[in-house]
């Protein structure tokens, strides 16, 4: 992506040796990776990479050589053997998948072998198997994701993996834990990121491209909030269209940029494939990359990015650091988490939750919806969710109901409110008004809920009680 920004930032770093290392990495291309015997990765000598990255390439090359000499069947037997030569202690092993996302080798989780895991997400909702599969189809390379580390009581930790394409049918990989790198992002931070980028896409689609880019490039404008800002590129050449903190990059084509561990941030110089742009080509998605954090004395930190296509010609995105995101969530709690008071605010709240759910997945989203201290519970207004069969997926003030079927739940007038709301969600989204007991007053009051479909499997909504003046206005 914008590796010139890293260059300008890390020039302030105290360690000259670290500076020279990062400069070497950033000056290299991101081509498909040759064998370690060639001594190069993407046009960069392996010695330019940190030890973690070099060891991954060398280990994967050993596995590739074993496949070439012994064939797929024998190789997979060896990769799946927890006592085999490709399991080194508790830290290093080879895993493998076919091009459809079916697990072929996982020595420490044999129950995964044979299962399709293309939709498997990490601790932050990142579709990491899909990402690794895409990376393999482009020749291979480095990637990050967050998984439970069995060596640390299954605490979620960042993992750096190197993926090598075997042939058109399957690929293999190996990884190393980066346990010292904080990599879990709060729901508050992730929601802020989604709202920020989604709002920018809406603005770009509602205005001419020139006007939108002027706004995104304005360092003092509404699309710069502290360390959070937007970057924008075209699809054709990966040309920078917006970067408020480095205007000298605007208009330049970015190719071959890698982060300090060798992750390809930009498309390859040789093939034009890879990089963060590939996520935007799919329409929308998440991406991890290592960046120098000015709040941490310009030391490397993992960043979670969210990117979206504006149209067929260009895309934009933004990213957050873990600590930065947590701080934003805590500081913003008293203002941004005020309960919606109007139908317009209610609809915006629910649609933001739906977008959040589509990006981070049902399991993580419903977990976040259940958090009474999280951003989806605002006073007496909260997100509830159910599948289209009627099973409750999220009900933060009645957790015992989650997993039960509430399709025939009735109010005092005999209205099956969940059936009514489900019908609205099946058609897309809308409002539904009904009588319901207000837990704060103990009395039955008119309530308006807004519901929307997340996907074909489930829907969500939230409701507000109509105040006296609102009821008078409606009358």
Account of the 3D structure:
This protein is an alpha+beta fold. It has three domains: 31-177, Beta-Lactamase; 187-333, PAS domain (Beta-Lactamase, 2-Layer Sandwich); 338-474, PAS domain (Beta-Lactamase, 2-Layer Sandwich). The chain contains 14 helices and 20 strands. The chain has helices at residues 3-10, 16-26, 51-70, 72-79, 128-137, 187-206, 209-217, 277-281, 322-331, 333-336, 343-360, 362-369, 417-426, 468-474; strands at residues 40-41, 44-45, 87-88, 92-98, 103-105, 140-149, 155-165, 170-177, 231-234, 240-242, 284-293, 299-309, 314-320, 377-378, 381-382, 384-387, 392-394, 429-437, 444-455, 458-465. Strand 18 (429-437) and strand 19 form a beta hairpin. It is globular. This is Putative cache sensor protein. Residues 44-130, 182-267, 341-419 form the Single Cache domain. InterPro entries: Double_Cache_2, sCache_2.
What descriptors fit this protein?
alpha+beta; six-stranded antiparallel β-sheet; 475 residues; Beta-Lactamase; 14 helices
Quick recap:
With 475 residues, this protein is α+β, with helices and mostly antiparallel strands.
């Amino acid at each position: 992506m914008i590796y010139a920004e890293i260059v300008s930032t890390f020039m302030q770093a105290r360690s000259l040796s670290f500076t020279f290392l990062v400069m070497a990495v950033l000056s290299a291309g991101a081509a498909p990776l040759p064998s370690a015997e060639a001594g190069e990765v993407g046009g960069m000598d392996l010695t330019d990479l940190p030890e973690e990255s070099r060891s991954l390439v060398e280990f994967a090359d050993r596995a590739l050589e074993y496949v070439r000499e012994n064939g797929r069947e024998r190789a997979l037997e060896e990769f799946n053997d927890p006592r085999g030569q490709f399991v080194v202690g508790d830290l290093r092993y080879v895993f493998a998948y076919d091009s459809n996302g079916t697990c072929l080798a996982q020595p420490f989780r044999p129950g995964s072998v044979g299962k399709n895991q293309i939709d498997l997400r990490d601790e932050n909702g990142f579709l990491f198997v899909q990402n690794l599969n895409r990376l393999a189809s482009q020749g291979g390379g480095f990637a990050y994701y967050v998984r439970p580390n069995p060596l640390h009581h299954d605490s979620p930790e960042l993992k750096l993996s190197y993926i090598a394409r075997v042939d058109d049918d399957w690929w293999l990989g190996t990884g190393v834990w980066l346990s010292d790198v904080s990599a879990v992002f709060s729901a508050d931070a992730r929601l802020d990121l989604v709202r920020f980028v989604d709002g920018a896409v809406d603005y770009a689609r509602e205005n001419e491209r020139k006007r939108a880019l002027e706004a995104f490039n304005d360092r003092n404008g509404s699309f710069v909030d502290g360390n959070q800002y937007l970057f924008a590129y075209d699809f054709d050449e990966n040309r920078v269209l917006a970067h408020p903190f480095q205007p000298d990059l605007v208009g330049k084509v970015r190719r071959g940029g890698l982060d300090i561990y060798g992750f390809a941030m930009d498309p390859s110089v040789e093939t034009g494939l890879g990089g963060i742009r590939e996520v935007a080509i799919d329409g929308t998605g998440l991406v991890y990359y290592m960046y120098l954090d000015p709040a941490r004395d310009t030391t490397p930190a993992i960043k979670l990015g969210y990117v979206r296509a504006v149209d067929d010609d260009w895309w934009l995105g933004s990213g957050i650091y873990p600590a930065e995101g947590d701080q934003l969530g805590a500081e913003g709690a008293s203002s941004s988490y005020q309960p919606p008071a109007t139908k317009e605010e209610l609809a915006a709240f629910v649609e933001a939750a739906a977008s959040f759910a589509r990006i981070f997945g049902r399991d993580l989203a419903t977990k976040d919806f259940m958090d009474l201290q999280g951003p989806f519970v605002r006073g007496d207004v909260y997100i509830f969710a159910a599948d289209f069969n009627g099973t409750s997926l999220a009900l933060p003030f009645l957790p015992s109901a989650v997993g039960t079927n509430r399709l025939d739940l009735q109010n005092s007038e005999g209205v099956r409110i969940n059936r009514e709301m489900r019908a609205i969600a099946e058609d897309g989204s809308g409002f539904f008004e009904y009588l319901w007991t207000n837990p704060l007053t103990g009395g039955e009051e008119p309530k308006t809920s807004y519901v929307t479909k997340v996907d074909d499997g489930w829907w969500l909504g939230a409701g507000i009680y109509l105040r006296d003046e609102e009821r008078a206005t409606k009358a």
